[in-house]
Amino acid sequence: xxxxxxxxxxxxxxxxxxxxxxxxxxxxxxxxxxxxxxxxxxxxxxxxxxxxxxxxxxxxxxxxxxxxxxxxxxxxxxxxxxxxxxxxxxxxxxxxxxxxxxxxxxxxxxxxxxxxxxxxxxxxxxxxxxxxxxxxxxxxxxxxxxxxxxxxxxxxxxxxxxxxxxxxxxxxxxxxxxxxxxxxxxxxxxxxxxxxxxxxxxxxxxxxxxxxxxxxxxxxxxxxxxxxxxxxxxxxxxxxxxxxxxxxxxxxxxxxxxxxxxxxxxxxxxxxxxxxxxxxxxxxxxxxxxxxxxxxxxxxxxxxxxxxxxxxxxxxxxxxxxxxxxxxxxxxxxxxxxxxxxxxxxxxxxxxxxxxxxxxxxxxxxxxxxxxxxxxxxxxxxxxxxxxxxxxxxxxxxxxxxxxxxxxxxxxxxxxxxxxxxxxxxxxxxxxxxxxxxxxxxxxxxxxxxxxxxxxxxxxxxxxxxxxxxxxxxxxxxxxxxxxxxxxxxxxxxxxxxxxxxxxxxxxxxxxxxxxxxxxxxxxxxxxxxxxxxxxxxxxxxxxxxxxxxxxxxxxxxxxxxxxxxxxxxxxxxxxxxxxxxxxxxxxxxxxxxxxxxxxxxxxxxxxxxxxxxxxxxxxxxxxxxxxxxxxxxxxxxxxxxxxxxxxxxxxxxxxxxxxxxxxxxxxxxxxxxxxxxxxxxxxxxxxxxxxxxxxxxxxxxxxxxxxxxxxxxxxxxxxxxx
Length: 723
Hints:
By secondary structure, the protein is an alpha/beta fold. It contains 24 helices and 32 strands. The longest helix is centred in the C-terminal third of the chain and has 18 residues, at about 670-685.
């Protein structure tokens, strides 16, 4: 994958109010990933767990100084062992602490005293335990690390493996792999083992098990990998993001550096989020917020191990997917149909249109009764090997083709051997001659041996199963597209809106103040009158014109519909008088009399602010359909050019907005303007607002109009900007 054309300063960081970590020093990170000397505290020849780390320094080929620390032994695994760090003849740059919780704290204190720069703590029973003792012990780790400037990985961490520099600070067994350019951050030990052991063709450079991230976290690891010239792709299994502002800033830096960030994040269900809390001690924000932030900051998000591996494999090739124009040759009509079904799911990958000279060259190689089209279903060639080679190279070299793909089925054989290997060799020649992204598609993922996968990787050909390849290509094309600029803000009356939020002292408000708040932002509101008697209601209706709506107007009544506090389509004074009397009798102090809006489509606009992830803008189908249809689109505030239009295109209701079955199109531009004004509110006042709910907002043939709203300020003290 090639870098998209974007600038680092194009990024918009979320409004994070609770960054909880301190950026690790470069020297500390260097000591963690590339220490010149290491010590294993708690090393023992009688325990596999406490011995294996030392044995692996020899296996991986580490050339630095190594020692054990344990007063009971003079040597462990052939390395010298000392009674304490203070007794060592050198100060190790990094230590691996294999002790129980209490002894871990003592060891970390000694490490800080002698000047150790990095430490890895695998021990559990700290913040993730949910106990007061565990939380206190983890707080002590943070205190020691921050006072000394030490980079501390963990607790509850498996450690670090660096195949590029042949070094580790890792507590468990691992294979010594051929180094590649893919760095992996995992917040789970089991997920790390599963992905490293997959043998699907990923060539890893580094792997780190983040654990509780009490001190040094994912944002620090991202920063290190963005700056490491050996790393070409950064991927991760991330349960929770502890410091979103720094994390997404580093994602922006990675995108600008041309390094894809590919993340698998669980938490789509409440059950999954609860398990994340139990697992790492992390509180997770709503999944939909993360999903949209990943899009905003150029993160390639996947939802399964298979998608994860497929996207990493495509990304590590380093070859551009271009505009996603796919050229394919496949000798199975049935497979071609299945590919077409998968391609239909893609937003950015499509079949290329062959140029005339490509069609002519292919036609000369095929029997007269075979059609030349893309995808090409070819068979009946006299010289299968030479004909396949020419067909593959012809398609791959077509200027209209960005990606070439063909079937690879190792079970497909004839008298001369395996046809698949012959086609694989032809694909490799096409990759060498064209420099384009070339893929072999396995009909059943996992059916190809790791040796075959590695063989093709050496020839710049990737092998992925047919269920995952098209999605992986689609994500690669989307990532490579340049990011659009941030849209300009629309004018709002920030001073009066800030004052209004302050006047309510953090209390939610609806009714007249909420409508005034929207009007100050330039969002059209329905003609309304606020009255305190039946006679005044009738006078107000005469002014706005029948039919009218009467609703409870008390500022502190936030959900009128649930209280039967809205009565619509009142056609005359008699009906209004009865309705008003009913609402006053129910306890209303103020009524809102509004013109009854009958035409148009009901929409909902919303703003929601998360303490950690910032503000988000929502648009969707409104009125009584909001919860039934669940038809809404969400984006982080700071909308880019074209994003409001993209949001509307995602909605099922957009067909009605654009005119359906002869109905006239509605004022979509007016709706887009309202979305942009809500975004402007979020950019300027998001830290002072918990949420805004505009429902319904009617989109009409000409114009839009909000008829109801609820504004929930942030708790007093969250927002202080009154400029």
